[in-house]
Amino acid sequence: MGKKELGKADFTEAQIKEFKDVFTIMDNNRDGVIDRSDLRQTFVAIGKTGVKDQELDEMLMEAHGPLNFEVFLDLFGSKLCGTDPEDVLLQAFQMFDDEGKGSIKFEEFKVYLTKWAAKFSPEEVEQMVKTSPIRADGQLDYRSLCYTITHGDE
């Protein structure tokens, strides 16, 4: 039995808008296609400067052609199909976790949230601080946060 792939019709309007926002952030030169340069700049923006050209090319090869918004949406659909929501969240946080330790520096992550991503307001960041497992050393335990988001506060 094959894996069902999601298409544009399987996302809500709000999800498509969020994907479009992400695509626009990643498309640094605003030419409607994400290329190696755009990917590199995206990684630099989140603090990952050592990504090799080969790694970027491998990512782009998953698209089997120019990575425009439609292809971007299809890729997300195929990646998310059958994926547990907790796994999706964990994969997103793992991009910030170079050491694979399950936590990230909250202050750095907060800058990303307020400057790059959905541009959280100070009130939204404060709410996140209240509900997030931030350790005394300033590390956000994102594994615990993902579990709480997807399973509730048990």
From TrEMBL:
This is Myosin, light chain 7, regulatory. It comes from Eptatretus burgeri. Gene3D superfamilies: EF-hand (1.10.238.10). It comes from the Eukaryota. Keywords: Calcium, Repeat. Residues 14-49, 84-119 form the EF-hand domain. One of its GO terms (molecular function) is calcium ion binding. Pfam families: EF-hand_5, EF-hand_8. InterPro entries: EF-hand-dom_pair (IPR011992), EF_Hand_1_Ca_BS (IPR018247), EF_hand_dom (IPR002048), Myosin_RLC (IPR050403).
